[in-house]
Write a structure and sequence with these properties.
Layout (H helix, E strand, L loop, with lengths): L1 E2 L2 E3 L2 E3 L3 E7 L4 E8 L2 H16 L8 H17 L1 H12 L3 H21 L6 E3 L6 E9 L2 E5 L5 H15 L2 E6 L5 H13 L6 E5 L2 H10 L3 E7 L2 H14 L2 E5 L5 E4 L5 H12 L12 E5 L3 H14 L18 H16 L3 E4 L14 E4 L17 E7 L2 H8 L9 E3 L3 H10 L6 E2 L18 E2 L4 H7 L1 E9 L13
Parallel strand pairs: 1-5, 8-9, 8-11, 9-10, 11-12, 13-14, 13-18, 14-17, 16-17, 18-19
Antiparallel strand pairs: 2-3, 4-5, 6-7, 7-21, 12-20, 15-16
Helix pairs in contact: 1-7, 2-4, 2-5, 2-6, 3-4, 3-6, 4-5, 5-14, 7-8, 9-10
The protein binds NADPH dihydro-nicotinamide-adenine-dinucleotide phosphate.
NADPH dihydro-nicotinamide-adenine-dinucleotide phosphate binds next to helix 7 and helix 8.
Length: 488
Amino acid sequence: MDRFQLYIDGTFEDGAARFPSLDPATGTAWADMPEAREAEVDRAVTAAHRAFTSGAWPKLTASQRGKLLLKLADLVQENAADLARLETRDTGKIIRETSAQIAYVAEYYRYYAGLADKIEGAHLPIDKPDMEVWLRREPVGVVAAIVPWNSQLFLSAVKLGPALAAGCTVVLKASEDGPAPLLHFARLVHQAGFPAGVVNIITGFGPACGHILTTHPKVAHIAFTGGPATARAVVRNSAENLASTSLELGGKSPFIVFDDADLDSAANAQVSGIFAATGQSCVAGSRLLVQDTVKDAFLSRLKTKAEAIRIAAPDDMATEVGPLCTARQRDHITATIAASIAKGARVVTGGQPVEGPGFYFPPTILDCSTAPDAPALSDEFFGPVLAVTTFGTEAEALARANDTAYGLASGVFTKSLTRAHRMIRGIRAGVVWVNTYRAVSPIAPFGGHGLSGHGREGGLAAALDYTTTKTVWLRTSDDPIPDPFVMR
Ligand code: NDP
């Protein structure tokens, strides 16, 4: 079996215990993983804190930090094929997507490399004639970065990039489901030449590892991606160290198709929005709201496309839907479909796990237009299941779109410019895609509202999240300080 190690304080080590990682395509163990427990987490955070407060890292200029990030970006690009192969093997995400996504991950590191020396403070036009006052932008401290299994390299790049550009140090916890790509990525961090302790990469189980990490007194900021239930635990944990948090959580994103839309193009976007990445995507357009006048025309297009999707081994470039990452995921999807059928949902296609080895689930469409209480319309599947409902008017479309506890992404398909603008204004979500879906860029901030979390990843705003300001007052007068009992 392939063997992986933790990366703590610039050295590779085996961890407190070992556990097997399963290949989702076969359900059998393929790699031997290291587990971090309390002692390892404490050493990683202590190393990150030491690297933040002493040694080479705090002495680097912002431009020098940028150069290290550029080197890392180049290494990610050079090693993209290996990283993609590992992510595919350990999580079941298809090679077609991991290859493209990881090559693009390098662009995130490049973007933040360029931003490192553009994170500026400010000079204040203060209302006192004998004072100069300015704001220094300083790194917030040690960052605990926690990612789930579905896109670990991508989801860590949107945390590591801005955190390192800002001058923070990081303990990155990979999910224990599919940690191989991040544990391998640690070698690239090492090769890039970051001082020991600046980046530490560990994995382990939530209660023994994530809990210790997020309550650690030396952690200043927690950047978390995962589900709302774990996010609540993380926020409760942050009451211990009073760390700030940014939370990128799940979604139940509306995909709205008006009767004037290009239905073929919208159907392709819907396939990408719900069946790509086997639906294990936080931005999955998992709630189709289709105007009742085109419901049948649109659903028949979708059904044809869904049934033509090639379900096969994830390491085959021709595969379009691979296995889910875990058996747990498959069982959750199966149960939520059954609960939705019990509430009146109708299976248009799919609906049952694929028999045989591996955690495969076929593209599934559930017509919930006469089942408003079906959990398929409100609960995140995190799998290839589309819940369909209809609307008559634009006002109804908007009301249904916003009828969710989440608020991450949304898609609007219409040829009417004015209607598109009205929908953009009305939809409560962090991202609105118009006549497209599932486009991302390091330049564009990303994040949600409500149960989808808070904080933004990507863009300049994300780098500022990893900083705090220091207000400097400098007196320019040589006269003695007047009345010491009066605040000036
Ligand atoms: P979880 O919330 O179960 O896990 C996320 C991470 O948190 C894992 O690394 C997990 O570790 C860790 N963790 C678990 N318990 C604790 C704890 N007590 N303290 C600290 N950390 C802990 O999410 P899933 O793995 O189920 O991932 C799927 C979710 O992630 C979905 O809701 C999805 O929508 C969301 N997501 C959001 C994205 C966004 O950008 N908005 C992007 C991608 C996914 P362990 O693996 O050991 O349990």
